[in-house]
Design goal:
Protein name: Cytochrome c family protein
Mean pLDDT: 89
Largest sheet: 5 strands, antiparallel
Number of helices: 13
InterPro entries: Cyt_c-552/4, Multihaem_cyt_sf
Domain Cytochrome c-552/4: 42-125
Pfam families: Cytochrome_C554
Organism: Methanosarcina siciliae T4/M
Structural class: alpha+beta
Strand content: 15-25%
Shape: globular
Number of domains: 2
Length: 464
């Protein structure tokens, strides 16, 4: 669950607002949903931006079947434990939250505009924010639309420019999450960026997630509105992340493809291994996994569910497997000896949990920071009668959630979680080269390996 709720812990991002008196974050019942326009209306002038947003994870923030399944589980726990029912909805259906259409969490009271998730009029009605995390946005819906351009004009509405729209802190409102009761950090994508070299260099979230560039800023010439002037750069509205699972199942092929492309530009591998060994000799292999393209840790977001791991295979000269680590069994479970890069939360009894509302502490967090790297060391004994040379293959895998968790939520065989190859060694054109005594690197090799999955519309779980 990647969404946020009532503001628990605020640290002010200074220097953004000119006013010294900050308003309270918008809350349940502050507005009616009729104050907001459906995104289709915006498409009349902003067709390109609407087309990019349509089908994105922002547009599907409320209809996301994985989120909905977790939301219904949270709803039961929230009622039993006295947690705020709108905790997740504050980001996933913000219009539904501020218009008091949530609860109930089954969505039965949601208006059509609220079902649009993180939509146009919501984003451009944010007048200011009270900080980072748990969605402390202050809304002013109406005829004035907020944005970043001071020279914009529109025949349809008034425009107010706010430098905040060019700041990563805008994204940080929802992309940091704190537990609604114990304040434990559940997700910290913004903080990961803020503490990264990218922040020091002035590369903000928008530079990667709202431009055609995958790693860093890339200009996108065009018009922001059909009636507007030609500009050297117009921000895109795909808001691409790493979710190829939900977008794929929901039939959003464009966004699935972009998510895979982003994943395959995030990391690189370097492998050092001998090309020969004597029978019984210990063979040592070192694999360097480097975060080369993400301005935050990999993986990021709801990292109790995300899984990133290395698969390593060694073959003899006849192609016989002499070592293998990181494979999947017939049920889609990762080799228990493999290192999985993610966050492991513990409940009140110290047991691991993927239900963030149960989380009270962090057992481990071994994710890889921006421009940082880790080295995995593997070793095996050279088998008798195994001919040299030795060849080594390494693949860095990623999936949005464990197959076990998806099976628990929806039943076995309903959804297969795609496994995406983020990076691989050796490079494709070097795959037939015998021996790998030197170091090789591949950044974002497009292998496109997936589990076969059923393409079906999501099944929603109603509240208990």
């Amino acid at each position: 669950m990647k969404s946020t709720g009532l503001l628990i812990s605020i640290f002010l991002f200074t220097g953004i607002w000119t006013s010294s008196a900050l308003a309270d974050p918008s809350g349940p019942g502050d507005f009616t949903s009729s104050r907001f326009s459906k995104s289709g209306l915006c498409s009349n002038c902003h067709g390109s931006s609407f087309g990019e947003w349509d089908g994105s994870m922002h547009s599907n923030a409320d209809s996301d079947f994985f989120y909905q399944a977790m939301l219904q589980e949270y709803g039961v726990a929230a009622e039993a434990q006295g947690l705020p029912p709108e905790f997740c909805s504050r980001c996933h259906t913000p219009i539904g939250m501020v218009s008091a259409e949530i609860p109930p969490l089954d969505g039965s009271n949601l208006s059509e505009v609220a079902k649009e998730g993180v939509q146009c009029d919501f984003c451009h009605s944010i007048a200011e924010s009270e900080g980072i995390g748990n969605a402390p946005y202050v809304l002013e819906p109406g005829d004035v639309k907020w944005g970043s351009r001071k020279d914009s004009e529109s025949p349809s509405h008034e425009i107010e420019a706010h430098e905040f729209y060019n700041e990563s802190a805008y994204c940080g409102m929802c992309h940091n999450i704190y537990h609604p009761a114990n304040n434990l950090t559940l997700a910290a994508t913004y903080t990961e960026w803020e503490e990264s070299p990218y922040a020091e260099e002035g590369v903000n979230c928008q530079a990667c997630h709202m431009t055609p560039g995958i790693v860093g800023f890339e200009e996108n010439p065009g018009k922001a509105a059909s009636t507007g002037p030609e500009r050297t750069h117009v921000y895109t509205h795909y808001f691409v992340g790493a979710n190829a699972f939900v977008t794929g199942i929901m039939g959003e092929g464009r966004h699935e493809k972009k998510a895979i492309e982003y994943l395959q530009h995030a990391a690189s591998l370097e492998v050092t291994a001998p090309d020969s060994a004597e029978p019984g000799e210990n063979v040592e292999v070192a694999v360097k996994i480097k975060n080369t393209g993400a301005g935050h840790k990999i993986p990021t977001g709801v990292t109790e569910d995300r899984e990133m791991w290395l698969e390593l295979t060694a073959l003899d000269a006849e192609g016989k497997e002499i070592y293998h680590s990181g494979g999947l069994d017939s049920e889609g479970n990762i080799d228990p000896e493999a290192t999985v890069y993610h966050t492991v939360f513990a409940d009140s009894e110290g047991n691991p949990t993927v239900k963030v509302w149960e989380a009270e502490s962090i057992i481990s967090d071994n994710r890889i920071g921006p421009r940082s790297s880790v080295i995995e060391k593997h070793s095996f004994s050279m088998p008798q009668n195994a001919p040299n040379p030795i060849s080594v293959k390494a693949i860095l895998h990623y999936r949005s959630a464990s197959q076990e968790h998806i099976d628990e939520l929806f039943g076995e065989g309903v959804y297969s979680v795609p496994v995406i190859d983020m990076a691989a060694y050796p490079e494709e054109e070097k795959a037939s080269t015998p021996g790998f005594g030197t170091t090789g690197t591949l950044i974002a090799l497009t292998l496109g390996s997936f589990y076969k999955r059923r393409r079906k519309r999501p099944t929603y779980i109603s509240g208990i």
